[in-house]
Amino acid sequence: MTESIQKKSWDDPLPVPTSLLPWSSFIVFLCAVICFSNSIEGEFVFDDSEAVINNFDLKPDTPLSSIFQNDFWGTKLTHNTSHKSYRPLTVLTFRLNHFITGLNPWSFHFVNILLHGSVSALFHKVISCMLNSALDDESPKTAFLSALLFSVHPVHTESVSAVVGRADLLCGIFFLLSFLSFIHASKCFSFHWGPKMSLVWVGFSVILAGLAMLCKEQGITIIGVCCIYDIIIFYKWDIRCTGSNITHRNKNVPTSPGSDSKQCISFFLLRQSVLCLGGIFLLSVRWYIMGASTPVFQQVDNPASFEDRILVRIVNYHYIYSINLWLLFHPYWLCFDWSMGCIPLINSFIDKRIVVVVIFWIFCAHLLYSVFTHVDLRIRRLLCLSLAFILVPFLPASNLFFRVGFVVAERVLYLPSMGFCLLVVIGLKQLMIFCGQNYQMCIQCSVFILLTAFGVRCIHRSLDWRNEETLFKSGLSVCPLNAKVHYNIAKNAADKGDKETAIIGYKEAIRLNPLYDQAMNNLANILKDQGELIEAEELLISAIKIRPDFAAAWMNLGIVQSSLKKMNNAKKSYLMALQFRKRYPDCYYNLGNLYLEQKQYDEAYRAWRNATAMQPTHLVAWNNMIIMLDSIGALSKAEMVAYEALQYLPTEASLYFNLANTLGKAGKYTESEKYFLKALQLNENNPTYHINLGVLYHRWKKYHLAEKSYKRALEIKPDMKSASDNLRLLHKTFNFV
């Protein structure tokens, strides 16, 4: 026999003034916006560079169809390096941002903040509807406090403050809309036309789930949440008395006017079938788009998933789950990346962290015990729904079905935190009922302090995400053993010209992870620039031993070997780089330089031609071709190449300058003067341009103009010997004063 629901007031103890309730959604939206407003002045940081700045799918001249052919980072989904993250709707919003404001980070962050506010307000609406269905009672305070806690939770900082976090925000909107549609489907059933209309809303819910999945893969999990909701609320399944529920189901399933319980059960099964078939269809389409293959990750990305010992792997997985749960309870240790040694593996049962795993098991067991044994049916239902909102969206990140490319990622907690916030409020209400009137004021003050602390932490953490330097340094205090944190600090320092800090950072990253091939490559580049070629060569050889298909390392090794005059080895290295990366214009450019040094002019020309064919804006390759052809006397060919280059780079002064030199040698003085003046128009303060124009006038016997050009060069650079010598020669020859 199913337990009846008591109708006592369950909502009164919560510390929320009744006067605020009509403004609930607006207050939730406003709190979400205020807490993350610091990020509006942030830059593009970390993954934003690849997803936004370097993503050609955002450019106006790229066909719109490419968004639906490439992954989130602009790589072909069929490419073996693709992460298979298919999020075309998110990329579409990036492209719209780019179209309206260009690469202005302010606008990207502004949209993210508004989206989080919208998700928070929508979550308030969803919880209100869900509680009404689950409790047969309006619970405005519960919904308001749950949504308010969600809106100010610091674990959301990465999703809001990082531009790439928009995938989570958009997914959250469609995720909640899908659930709201399914709630509406359940409510429709009570009307005469309800059963058929109910199926229409279920279908709409599946469509919205598909849109959520096109924003981020996690969105598909709403199908599972809807299934559980339908079983608990409509089918009235009670986990405490499963046997009696099955036996007496016909008495408990709600009926619409003119329908019997068998028909209701039939429609329930039909709804479940629509959900399941819709989910299978969406997953099948997703699998087809991925090319029927999963992404390939390295061991450093997720070491536990590569562990051969099953028991050790299970223990480490549960330790990772406990960290995720701790981040929801105590979001102080937040880091932009948790890989590469940040969380060392538990390899022995004498490891002290086993205690954390045991505590996690005890917590989960107690929670399940409450789900089974709580005397109030309403609480059991809410606990089941809260756990569904936590566990089902977390499944894709759990490593249970497939390997993921991270250890811990705060962004994947965006959706599960919804269930967590509701669970906290349920626990809070039970605590207030249990403690009675004597401690209610103390608990209410604690809730206020918690919300304030979370809000302040959001503001503080948003500041960390405003630029890469502060972000990477904040990660160092949380994960000092994370090689990637040291790598990113070094890379940021190198970009700013701080080579010493960069060298220290790269060496520390390699010390922590001796297989860090990318750090070896970057460190070798700095050492190469400092003339430490032997050490640079050793690092690059180590990098390609670790990753034999590392095309960039092969190319850089070729550059170092060329500097060491190991020409044959350098040529082999360049060709190996091209073997692993067919379209590699920089490698063709360097190969051309090698051929030039060996006076193999035809081969050099072909290599540079390949570079410009793959990248028509490769300026140095164009200039090298023109200069080489000019130097070997192929003036007409040099002229032709220069005109071709200007079609792609019409505002590059160096191309006009080199073309002018070639025309001057060919005796085409008028045309040469025209292009010298064009070069000076684009770069008026380049003394070399003025000197060469002076030489042209000198040959052309326009001596006064030659004198003027030489003097202008000396004004810009007084110690320029060639200008002084040419001017002295001019005065001496023609007795100028």
Structural features, described:
This protein is mainly α. Helices cover 67% and strands 0% of the residues. Helix 9 (222-234) packs antiparallel against helix 12 (261-289) and helix 23 runs antiparallel to helix 24 (567-580). The longest helix is centred in the N-terminal third of the chain and has 31 residues, at 105-135. The protein is elongated. It starts with 23 loop residues before the first helix and ends with a helix.
Report the major sheet.
none
User: Rg to the nearest angstrom?
Assistant: 33 Å
User: Low-confidence spans: pLDDT under 50, at least 5 residues?
Assistant: 1-11, 243-259
Number of helices: 33
Q: Mean pLDDT, as a whole number?
A: 87
Shape descriptor reads elongated
- What's the end-to-end separation, in Å? 117 Å
Name the structural class: mainly alpha
Beta-strand content estimate: under 5%
Tell me the helix content: 55-70%
Strand segment count: 0
